[in-house]
Amino acid sequence: MNMENIHSGNAAIDAGSGDVFTDLGFANADERRRRLQLAMRLNQLIADCDLTQAKAAALLAISQPQVSELKHYKLGRVSSEQLTQLIALLDGDVEKGVRPKAGRRAPPRSENLSPEHLAAIRRAAPKAKGRIISSLI
Questions:
Q1: I need a surface site. Which of 26, 46, 47, 131 has the fewest CB within 10 A?
Q2: 3-state secondary structure string, the chain?
Q3: pLDDT tens column, 87-102
């Protein structure tokens, strides 16, 4: 671990580097950090849209338990690519970092989602989406 040892009274406290995954010694710290950032953005989009887990599951074509796992940051079985696809389905853009889609004022509210919007989202998803996204869990 690359941390500076600070003494406070009788206890030694290690100052972190600012990256908890590196500090804890994870070999894949960059990938873990990226998945966490993507999951945070996905959860923010779901909250901004006022979506229940069931509505989010329907829009994302995944199960409600999968949405629950994502909400609680259980990311062991999901890749950065899968999270990126899910963000795109909720109208978000993903680059090296995560930001709202350009030109978009606000994400759609759940009460404004029509059956046509849901159908358009499903049509826009790649044909392989079912195999890729359904393998989340």
A1: 131
A2: CCCEEEEECCEEEEECCCCHHHHCCCCCHHHHHHHHHHHHHHHHHHHHCCCCHHHHHHHHCCCHHHHHHHHCCCCCCCCHHHHHHHHHHCCEEECCCEEECCCCCCCCCHHHCCHHHHHHHHHHCCCCHHHHHHHHC
A3: 988 876 655 555 565 6
19, 33 Cβ separation under 8 angstroms: yes
What are phi and psi for residue 112, nearest 5 degrees? -95, 0
Among all chains, which residue has been given the structure tokens 């990938």?
Answer: 31
pTM of the model: 0.61
